[in-house]
Design a protein that fits this description.
The protein has 10 helices and 21 strands. With 353 residues, it is α+β, with helices and mostly antiparallel strands. The chain has one domain: Kinesin (3-Layer(aba) Sandwich), CATH 3.40.850. Strands 2, 6, 7, 8, 9, 10, 13, 16, 19 and 20 form a 10-stranded mixed β-sheet that branches. The chain has a 3-stranded antiparallel β-sheet with strand order 3-4-5, with helices on one face. A hairpin with a 3-residue loop joins strand 11 and strand 12. Helix 3 crosses helix 5 and helix 8 runs parallel beside helix 9. One of its GO terms (cellular component) is microtubule. GO terms for molecular function: ATP binding; microtubule binding; microtubule motor activity. Its main location: cytoplasm. Belongs to the TRAFAC class myosin-kinesin ATPase superfamily. Kinesin family.
């Protein structure tokens, strides 16, 4: 608590797709072990280091255990503000890493082995709450940022824009967002799937089911430990220890790629430009935060809705995990290098939880 803590950054390299294999793409990203990857292609020869690297053969469970996600859940239960965000180009495996297969629904759930960080975290959270014996209140809110508008994915009716406010005590927050209480794994998974189906997606040249918005699902954890041994002067009823308010936020960022690569035009082009502007603002904030505290200038969180909502996670009092997702294909080399440089800068960012 209060100590300077670096962002934990892990890398996931997805397998080559059937399309990439048929096209004859070369594999240009190779894991070296001990958190290092090597990129070897014409005019490019570079090695990058991360807290952990998960290659194409890594299971969903291995990513959950090896990324430090279990510890993040425990910190959220202890009252910390915790965030995990997935970053990378469209089709690099961000949503799969967080949620598992896109085809799942309440009536057709995914196979247990394919479940992502979110469902595994929900299971861990509920198991921990039972084993700790704490009086726990859990609720969830689910938002998307689409074309610089914040929209509630859990409210009934068509999504409408919500105002983003700032206060000295709360920092940036979304006004009038819906928060839904839950007590079981089935209830929170149902909220996740309902909200995800309402999220804006489109087909383009890189992905038939591309996310066109940034999505933030936040679990609010309010705990009050109950003691069987009351302090002197208190009756034999259970006495309450100080309450803790923690959060666990999952951020699925929209794909980062050049508009010309997507073949987008019209409304899709507007969406892509909006996505890229917010990711550029996020990258700018990360670059400035990566400098030592004495050399930092003003951090421009207000440049986008995304950076405002991630301000606490990136440069404030949060504990943050970044999962960078890349393709090993030679066809995606430029976007892969961009993601690797972005993630490398993020490793130098520190917060004070």
């Amino acid at each position: 608590e209060g100590r300077e803590t670096r962002l934990r950054v892990v890398l996931r390299v997805r397998p080559l797709t059937c399309t990439e294999t048929r096209r004859g793409d070369q594999q240009v990203v190779h894991s070296l072990g001990d958190g290092a990857v090597h990129v070897s292609a014409a005019r490019h020869d570079a090695t990058f280091g991360f807290s952990a690297v998960f290659d194409a053969g890594a299971s969903q469970e291995a990513v959950f255990e090896g990324s430090g996600m279990r510890q993040l859940v425990e910190l959220a239960m202890d009252g910390f503000s915790c965030t995990v965000f997935a970053f990378g180009q469209t089709g690099s495996g961000k949503t799969y890493t967080l949620m598992g297969p896109l085809a799942q629904s309440e009536t057709r759930p995914a196979a247990p082995a394919l479940l992502g960080l979110m469902q595994r975290s929900f299971t861990c959270l509920l198991e921990q709450s039972r084993s700790r014996g704490s009086d726990l209140a859990l609720s969830a809110s689910y938002l998307e940022i689409y074309n610089e508008q914040v929209r509630d994915l859990l409210s009934s009716g068509p999504p409408c824009a919500l105002p983003l406010r700032w206060s000295k005590t709360r920092g940036f927050y979304v006004e009038n967002q819906l928060s839904v209480e839950f007590e079981s794994l089935e209830a929170i998974v149902s909220l996740l799937l309902q909200g995800s189906q309402r999220r804006r997606t489109s087909a383009h040249a890189l992905n038939r089911h591309s996310s066109r918005s940034h999505a933030l699902l936040t679990i609010h954890i309010s705990s009050r430990a109950v003691s069987a041994h009351p302090a002197p002067g208190e009756g034999w009823g259970a006495s309450a220890c100080p309450s803790k308010q923690g959060t666990l936020c999952f951020v699925d960022l929209a794909g980062s790629e050049r508009v010309k690569e997507t073949g987008s035009s019209g409304e899709l082009s507007v969406e892509a430009n909006s996505i890229n502007r917010s990711l550029l603002a996020l990258g700018h904030c990360i670059s400035l935060l990566a400098k030592s505290r004495g050399k930092r200038t003003h951090i421009p969180y207000r440049d986008s809705k995304l950076t405002r909502l991630l301000a606490r996670s990136l440069g404030g009092s949060g504990v943050t995990l970044m999962v960078a997702c890349i393709s090993p294909s030679s066809h995606c080399l430029s976007e892969t290098l961009s993601t690797l440089h972005y993630a490398s800068r993020a490793r130098r960012v520190t917060t004070r939880p």
